[in-house]
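Hi F.,

I've been meaning to write this up properly since the lab meeting, where we talked about keeping a consistent format for the predictions we share between groups. The idea is simple: the sequence comes first, exactly as it goes in, then the structure tokens exactly as they come out, then a line or two of notes. No screenshots and no reformatting. I'm using this chain as the first example so we have something concrete to point to.
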Amino acid sequence: MRRSLLLASISALFALPFATNAQSSRPATRPSSERIAMAAPAAATAPARLACSGKFVGQVLTAAGKPLTGATVLVDGSRFPVITNSEGRYIIEEPVYRGQVIHIAAAGYVERDVTLTTCESPIVELELAEGTRIKRTGKRAGQIVRLGQ
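Output, unedited:
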């Protein structure tokens, strides 16, 4: 008798976890107000792509109107910066969308952000940062001698 009681209690202990798992595998019936949404709602409007002919071209100049060579141009959301050439021009080959911001920076100059609204080539002028001095003559003319704060 003890033996049968012991076997019954052990079998009940092992059967209990399986019974609770079987019960929890059924879908819960909850009111729709308590259900959790699994997918994020779609964005109301997708960003509009500018109808540029393949490449987006622009130019960076100094405050004096001279081309700025070596300025860094980065479109927000992109991982690939573009460097201006000897004429201060840059070419962005990635798709460009209306409302995107282009971040332009160069050593010794004040950084500038430009919001894109059209496919026209933006001509951006950067001003020298306060305290920056550029060597005007000699072997190293055009180089930054002192960087501003």
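Notes:
The radius of gyration is 33 Å.
The mean pLDDT is 75.

If this format works for you, I'll send the rest the same way.

G.
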